[in-house]
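User: My notes are a mess, but here's the protein and adenosine-5'-triphosphate's SMILES. Can you give me a structure?
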Amino acid sequence: MSERWLFTGFRLIVEMGLDDLFVIKKWNLFWLRSERESKDYNSNDGFSLIEVHLQNLMADAAGVNLDESGGSGVVAEVSVGIQEEEATEVEICRREISMASSSSSLSSHGYEIPWVEKFRPTKVKDIVGNADAVSRLQVIARDGNMPNLILAGPPGTGKTTSILALAHELLGPNYKEAVLELNASDDRGIDVVRNKIKMFAQKKVTLPAGRHKVIILDEADSMTSGAQQALRRTMEIYSNSTRFALACNTSSKIIEPIQSRCALVRFSRLSDDEILGRLKVVADAEKVAYVPEGLEAIIFTADGDMRQALNNLQATYAGFRFVNQENVFKVCDQPHPLHVKNMVRNVIEGRFDDACSGLKQLYDLGYSPTDIITTLFRIIKNYDMAEYLKLEFMKETGFAHMRICDGVGSYLQLCGLLSKLSIACLTAKA
Ligand SMILES: Nc1ncnc2c1ncn2[C@@H]1O[C@H](COP(=O)(O)OP(=O)(O)OP(=O)(O)O)[C@@H](O)[C@H]1O
Ligand SMILES: [Mg+2]
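Assistant: No problem, the inputs look usable. Here's the predicted complex:
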């Protein structure tokens, strides 16, 4: 194998009709490995052979006779070797294929790509929630002249999705040559900034007026501060032809000089209604049987993280084929909110021993103190009780959480918390 082909063994799940074979042909296929025959084909075999082989493989996987059916909507798994630079494109094409095929009856084969990828929005306008941020991005997508951007916010709220969609809308067919995407899995030390990023910034690409090349630095908070320092001047020198889009979870991990060169777009956790809307869309598209309480439970476990919500939906569906509260909490393996709610009620109504035995049950089931205390906090936040008492409860829970984070996550710690909550109740009554 020649050294030019660095990226090998990319496993691709092909999920499309045979008409879509051109998508595969477009990539510079290096080798293709049949999982069934344990046989490698390389580029010397020519495309036609690979194509025929793919056709057979796909037809085989679907158990159909190619001549009769035309083989549409079949699933096959092949490993392909792809030149390193083309790997990003594979991801994107795969996304496009999956969007195109989401309405087909592929799920019956039980071999699916994750729904988070299948339903990743490809247009900025399809991104749910964060209305202000999304409308700002929509204006940029329409008018061009993208400023340097930092997208900051909690995980699973649509930062990467927004940047990719924005870059696609801005650059359309030029995406491949005008976008450089680097994430935390790529080496992004100072050398890469000096060489790869600078070289890309210097590259000449003909684009329509008002459009610029885009360098996407995903998970930018994991870049060393040395590498960020090295970016400063590059950002300025090439600003007439290249713009940067950074995505990160905590904007404070981006050094100040970079922050001052960028427009900050903040993403926040998604609201329950926003997640519910999206869950319903996905559940309907995948014909998932659910009851409203099931979706509520998913929303509770996801806590504003759309990725988590979709993953939990898929996991529950895969495990039980039916989404109700019970199944969701079994799959997600979090303390059952009703159980925790009972515990809080026992404390408030003065049954301390019962509260403690409820806690013991949870502890014995193997839930970690962090699991228990985060659920407890969420329950307290929404519990119907006197304002004063709620504030006291939240304060004490916060302190206990802090001590658990410091490493003292014992049963005693949690019992101590319950007793403090009980004392708060007694004081409130007195
Ligand atoms: N606002 C949203 N609207 C619709 N789908 C979303 C949204 N946010 C997240 N998703 C879903 O969750 C998946 C992950 O989103 P994305 O990669 O954009 O998260 P992120 O904000 O970049 O998170 P991280 O900080 O972990 O990188 C997407 O593929 C999409 O299916
Ligand atoms: Mg991301």
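Strands lie at 10-16, 29-34, 39-42, 74-82, 149-152, 179-182, 213-217, 242-248, 263-266.
User: Great, I'll file this with my notes.
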